[in-house]
Structures are given as structure tokens and as C-alpha cells.
Design goal:
about 280 residues; mainly alpha; about 80% helix; about 0% strand
Length: about 280
Amino acid sequence: MRNIVALKRVIWDVATHFNDDDGWAMASYLAISALMALFPFLIFATTLASFLGAQAFSDTAVHLVFDTWPEQIAEPIAREVVNVLTIQRGDLLTYGAALALYFASNGIEALRTSLNRAYRVVETRSIWRRRTQSLGFVIIATVGFVAISVLLVFAPLIARFLESRFVWIQPYMGTITVWRFAIASMVIVLGLIAVHIWLPDGKRPLLDIVPGIIFTLIGWLVGSTIFATYLDNFSSYVTTYAGLASIMIAVVFLYIVSIIFILGGELNAAIRRYLDARARVGG
């Protein structure tokens, strides 16, 4: 009974704070910011990858980003991304790459703003420190994506080598598609941990952010599945928006994901508030 009461209090806290603190509007802001940051990030990452000699990055990057999206949503956007990434560009130190880096960091700032509200904290760090951190996030993510893309390029060769030397390992190797999905999922988990720990103001131990991360992952899976089913059976986006349909579908999908992401932060904050209140009254 006590657990049920605690659950109700936490859920009520999450729902009321999300609504009172403009969670719906923040989700819109985050969704648009994410879409606007996606192309600049991939352009900067592709430029850096080319500079480092990882010419196959544009092929693997699309899989890293979109393998965890429903196919109906990912396919048209991924096609446009490939078209953009295959355009020849100059070296790394161009104005285009610098601007792409800056615009990509705006997406990190949108995540920070959303999480600060969700965790009910006021930002105390200077704008220069925040922007430097956001740029660092983009650069670290880019280097990580490049490293993973190189691994994915050589993964079939490594798999064949291991299978030729160790016959018993064959049933456990799976396919490159399975490994791509597994790696993309791991990137999402590590990314969620990083943004929840370092982006919002203040400090939170890892255990405090686990509930929200689990909620976000489950919510992503359920929400994307429901939205994909809706697109297959009931959607009229194509007839309504014509050539803009793929963009509108992506915006709606990112809006759903943004709501789930913000609610994950709200859940962590609500649980912490409940535990602190219970501690103050002696259990």
C-alpha cells in the first residue's frame, strides 16, 4: 500500500510539474532544435572523418543515427542525409565546418535547457562555459561516431577472421545488422547517461538518473512502435503535406521522443524530491 501511495505521488509530481513548467512547449523547442542540429552535426562529422581518412563514414553514420528509428520515419530522412553527406567539401578548417559545429551545439543547449527545467534547477554556469561544454559534446560525439564507423567497416573482416580461427564462435556472431543496431542502442544509452549527468546544473549520482533513463528507453520503444503503426494504418501525412510529409513525420516523431526525454528528467527529479521529503520526516 505504501508503495502504491509513493508511486501515485511521484506520478502526480511528474505530471503537474511537466504541465506547469511548459513541458509541451519545451518538447516542441527540443524537437525542432534536434532536427536543426542533425544535419550540421553529420556535416561536421563527415568533414572531420574525411580529414582523418575515414572515407566510409557517411555510409555508417546514417546507420548509427537512424537504425533505432522506425523504418517508416528513418528511410526518407536517411535518404536526404546521404544526399547531403555525399556532397564534396573542403578540408576541416573551413567556415562551413565551423558553422556546422556551432549549429550542432545548439541542439546540446536545447537538451540542457530542457533538463534544467525538468530537474528544477537554475543555471549558474557562465555562457562561455556552457557553450564550450556543448562544443566539446559535439566533438567527442563526432570522434566517437568516427571510431565506431571505422569499427563497423572492418567488422565483417574481423568476424570472418574470428570465425575461421574459432569455429565455436560462429553461432554468436550474428549479422552486421544486429551489431549495428546493438552499437546504435549502446550509443543512445551512453549519450543519455552523459547528458543527464553533465548538462543540467548541479550534480547527480548515477543511481539518481537510472529511473529516467530506463523510462526514456522503454518510452522510445513503445512510442516509436505506436507511431510507426499509426503511419502504416491511419496516417494521411502524404496527402496532407505532399513533399513535406517526410519532414513533418520526423518533426512529430522527434516531438514524441522529446516529451519522453523530458519526462525522464521529470521522473528522476520527482523521485529525488519524494525521497528527500520522506527522509526529512523520518521515513
